[in-house]
Amino acid sequence: MADPRVTLEIDGAIAVITNNNVEKHNAFDDPMDLALFEILGELQHRPEVRAIIWRGEGKSWSSGRDVGSIGNGDQALTHHELMTRGHRGIQRMFEIDAPIIVPIQGWAIGGSFQRALLCDIRIAAEGARFMLPEVGHGVIPDTGGVGRLFQMCGHGLVSDMVLTGRLLDAHEALAYGIVSRVVPAEQLDAVAREMAEKIAASPKVTVKMARRVIRHLAEPEVVSSMSAELIYQTFVNKSDDYAEFRAARAEDRAPNYKGS
Question: Which residues span the domain enclosing 170?
Answer without folding.
Answer: 6-187+198-204
